[in-house]
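Hi Y.,

Following your request, here is the sequence exactly as I used it, all 91 residues.
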Amino acid sequence: MTDFTTEIVPAPERFALWGEVAAQSHVPNRQSSDNRDDFRAGIRVMDLGPLQASALAYPHLEIAPGGLAEPGGRRNDDGRPRAGRGSRRGR
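Below is the corresponding structure, written out as tokens. Let me know if you'd prefer a different format.
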């Protein structure tokens, strides 16, 4: 099992970090929230052979298909979002 939380970075950086992590773990999208100043969120992932189960916890969030929430988000050469400063902690 793997856990991730936005609380590993200062409050003003949490919303952008969540956008990067969500794009890598699920699907790129545009996000908006009333809690951008201190976005406390987390993901718990469990690998089940060829499947993966995820539990996400976050405050108010509006999601629309498309690119990253923050304009100019870092991307790899293939256009996928590049890893942010977040860390994952295995259990």
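The chain has one helix and six strands.

Thanks again,
Q.
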